[in-house]
Amino acid sequence: MKVPNVIRTYCPKCKTHTEHEVMLYKAGKRRTLAEGQRRYLRKQKGYGSKRKPEQKRTAKVTKKQVLKLRCKVCGYTYHKEGIRLKKLEIIEKVK
């Protein structure tokens, strides 16, 4: 699916329709000193089995792509959960 890199949509901070810059959301790097991550690594460690069973087959073929929208007026950024797609392409809109 092709998505334009600039979309005119509602901004909850400006409370009006403005132009938004479109980017694809990418999860950040995990913090190794966070309590949950330390607990996870401690349970994974050693000779025992894995913390959770490895999945043999997956039910879903695709992932939900999340769009990151940034308002060009106020700079407010919010996420918009997209639909399931195999490939998402952000293109420059030709006027």
List the helices and strands in order.
Answer: EEEHEEE
Please, how many helices?
1
Shape: elongated
- The helix-and-strand class reads mainly beta
CATH class bucket of the domain at 1-27 and 62-94:
Alpha Beta
N- and C-termini, Cα separation: 19 Å
Global mean pLDDT: 91
DSSP strand count? 6
The helix fraction, in percent, is 10-25%
CATH T-level topology of the domain at 1-27 and 62-94: Nuclear Transport Factor 2, Chain: A
How are the elements arranged and paired?
Layout: E1 2-4, E2 6-11, E3 16-24, H1 35-44, E4 63-71, E5 77-85, E6 89-91
Parallel strand pairs: 1-6
Antiparallel strand pairs: 2-3, 3-4, 4-5
Description:
By secondary structure, this protein is mostly beta strands. It has a domain at 1-27 and 62-94: Nuclear Transport Factor 2, Chain: A (Roll). The chain contains 1 helix and 6 strands, in the order βββαβββ. It has one helix at residues 35-44, and strands at 2-4, 6-11, 16-24, 63-71, 77-85, 89-91. One of its GO terms (molecular function) is zinc ion binding. Belongs to the eukaryotic ribosomal protein eL42 family. A zinc finger (C4-type) spans 11-74.
Short description:
A zinc finger (C4-type) spans 11-74. With 95 residues, this protein is mainly beta.
Tags for this entry?
single chain, 95 residues, mainly beta, Nuclear Transport Factor 2, Chain: A, 4-stranded antiparallel β-sheet, structural constituent of ribosome, Large ribosomal subunit protein eL42, zinc-finger, zinc
